Amino acid sequence: MALVAPPSDQVAGMDTKFRSSEQHVLDISTVINYLRERYERDVYLHGHCRSSFSPANVATELKNHGIAGIILSSPRSRGRHGAVTDYEEGVVKVPILLVQHRNDACKGTLYRYLNDVKRFYEKSSSRVDVIIVSGGETGSTGPSSCQNKAHSFVSFRKETAQAIADWVKGNTFPDSIPD
After folding, report:
1. 94 partner at 20 to 30 Å CA-CA among 41, 73, 109, 139?
2. Element spanning 27, H or E
3. Which residues does residue 72 pair with via DSSP β-bridges, in sequence order?
4. What is the pLDDT of residues 93-141, one digit of tens each?
5. Which of the 8 DSSP states describes residue 140?
C-alpha cells in the first residue's frame, strides 16, 4: 500500500482544480509506474470525499493504464466542487467499488446521489460494486458537514477497511455494514 501526500507545491491541500490537472495525473502516474515496477502488478486507487476526484480523473486520463480498480468512498456526487461524474463518460473500464454511509451529512457526498455515480460508471466499467454502511455514530466532530461521524465510517472503520480489502483481493465482501 502507498499513501500519497500532497506534493510540496500543494502544502495547503489539493483543491479540485489541481486534482483534475495534467500535473496531478503526471504525479500519480509516476507513483503508479513505480509501484507497478516494484510489485509487478497494476494498482488500485482510492479516494475519499474530495479525494475521490483523484482516482476518477487519473483513471480517465490514463485510460485505465496501470490501474487494476478504483475505490471511491463517500464519492463526490454534487456541490460547488463538482462531482466524480464530471469527467469524460465511458472511459473508466476497470472495476469500481463505491462505499457510502446512508447517513452521511456531507452535502457533496449524500447517499441519495450514490446511484447517479453508480450509473455513470456502469456505462463503461467491467464491474461496479457498492457497500452501504448504516447506523453507528452519526454526530458531528466539527463545524463542517464533512466532519460527521458517518462520513468517515467512524463506528465501522475496521469493518469497512476489511470489506474494501476483501474486494481488492477478490474475496467475498459484504454489500452492507453491519451485515
Report:
1. 109
2. helix 22-39
3. 47, 98
4. 999 999 999 999 899 999 999 999 999 999 999 999 999 999 988 876 6
5. B
| Element holding 68 (H helix, E strand) | strand 67-73
- Residues 6 or more apart whose CB falls under 8 angstroms from that of 59 comprise 45, 67, 70, 91, 92, 94
DSSP character for 148?
B
Average pLDDT, the chain: 92
* Secondary structure (H, E, C), 80-129: CCCCHHHCCCCCCCCCEEEEEECCCCCCCCCHHHHHHHHHHHHCCCCCEE
Residues in the chain: 179
| Contact call for residues 89 and 99 (beta carbons, < 8 A) | no
Domains (ranges, CATH) in the chain?
A: 15-177 (3.40.50.1820)
